[in-house]
Amino acid sequence: MFPIILEDIRINPILPIWLVATICVLLLFCKRKGVWPYIRQIILIVLIFLLNLRFQIPKEGVQIETEKVEAYILFVVDDTISMVANDYDGENYYTRLEAAKNDCRYILDELQGCKSCIISFHNTAQQLTPITDDSNYTFGMINGIYPLSSLYGKGTSINVCRELVESNLKKLHERMDGKVIVFFITDGEMNKDDELESFAKCKKYIDGGAVLGYGTEKGGEMFLKDQYSGEYEQVSYYDWDTGYNEITVSEYDPVNAKKIAKEMGVPLIHRESDRDFEELEDLVDQIKEETLSNTENGVEDTYGDVYYIFAWPIALLLAFEFISYKRKGSVK
Questions:
Q1: Nearest-angstrom CA–CA distance, 110 and 284
Q2: What is the pLDDT of residue 129?
Q3: Alpha helix positions (H), the chain
Q4: What's the pTM value of the predicted model, to 2 decimals?
């Protein structure tokens, strides 16, 4: 129920007033024998009605502290087919992308209130969300990321996101109202014919974060969900000249991941198992300490309940009625 303010006193009914009023009227029609019993009945009904109104009076203002978040988080998510390789966490067969989504959920939960946006890349790079402080919206978009079908995917080229990442970091930095944090999520894999371009220009816009590198150097097989049948199909390379169908294995590339991290001026955190979570946890704790350090102090008016003052006479009346009933029963 919404509170109703009456000058300095307000009521905040426990149950709807109309419902309790109806019950009280019905109880009045259940008239007891004798004048005094009926008067006591009326008093009890009135007290019950007043109890339900839940009277509240102002109390002294309470000092409050509100954490003020001053950070932007840019998630850069590798959305290529290699990210569905199943070499994460050993026998559990998580895909790299599933593990990355779990980590993003953790980051957003721990840094509630930070403004964030997402860039994903496969054949091209695209910004998936505007800057928002709605962590549920951000994670909903991250959770919906899935690679293109192998019919359309052109392999991995991290280079396609470089310019978009740099321009977004620059815009966030120019706002000058919060630290700029980046989480670059990738397995480091590149097409054999491609050479990784430099991300060094991004460094001057970044205040913290990490490159999160997923997978193992041993690698893992990839399974993509068919958009029509819903079944998972193994990704393979088919040679049209020889008719040879080779199962494709994706390997984590630490060289590219380290290069991106070094040029951006952030640490590389290798993620190949849920058992090596401590490094990410420590980093997020550090970011939280730096970005949630400012607080806004204030005084908030509060109200205290006084409706309990009607509970005592109700209890006394009920006790009196109970004793009277027992005495009449013993006389009979």
A1: 7
A2: 93
A3: 17-29, 35-53, 96-110, 135-143, 162-175, 254-264, 278-291, 311-331
A4: 0.67
